[in-house]
Amino acid sequence: MQLQFPQPTQTPNSVVETPQQTTTPGKIVPVTSHISHTLTSILYPLGRRVLIPFYFRRMEVTGTENIPKTGPVILAPTHRSRWDGLVMAFAAGKPVTGRDLRFMISDNEMAGPQGWVLRRTGGFPVNTKHPGISSIRHSVEILRNGEALVMFPEGDIYRDGYVNPLKPGMARIALQVESSQPNSGLKIVPIGLNYSQPIVKWRSEIRVNIGTPIDVASYCTGSTKKIAQQLTHDLEAALTELTKG
Known about the structure:
Low-confidence stretches: 1-13, 19-23
Shape: globular
CATH topology: Glycerol-3-phosphate (1)-acyltransferase
Radius of gyration: 17 Å
Number of domains: 1
Mean pLDDT: 89
Distance between the termini: 43 Å
CATH class: Alpha Beta
Structural class: alpha/beta
CATH architecture: 3-Layer(aba) Sandwich
Largest sheet: 8 strands, mixed
Order of helices and strands: EEEHEEHHEHEHEHEEEH
Strand content: 25-35%
């Protein structure tokens, strides 16, 4: 049975809001994401010209032509470090594609000064162990609005150099979007983040391999469970290729 999601509310300040959800009696949990163009106009140049060149000896990006310039897209990178979100912003975000990125981020990363910045640069929280329906709905709405969403399909950070089993949530979200908006053109772009060291230290090197987009529409036939498993399997295989050598 297809789930029906309410339409989001948008404001001129690039806020996408998913209607509030009551998880327990008397408790309302809103999920929103916001992009402050004032803040990003400062942070992007600072990061590109100062932070990234200072911390990393070299950053190499291949395959930027694989990122769609318009339409809904899930950017699906491997997860190796707390640097990953920042690397994604400069490898596949506005400086490269002209597109703002939204980020699904582990809720334990959304506290303190870091959380303050993340909440104003497109980030919104998710419990990676038990994703709440509000976070899932918000992800669907972002994509239905034709935006770009970064999701780490492994869920957690892994430093062993291998692609770990992917969580099923990304495939389910993608299939929900495509089934509710046929021919939306939703793509999933696999991205391998390869650091020169398991623990990313000062003067490390980073290679970002951006793979061929996966067309979600081509999976929308047959049993939902089976096609979600196949989509997850194909994404995992693509990520494995992008992290070799």
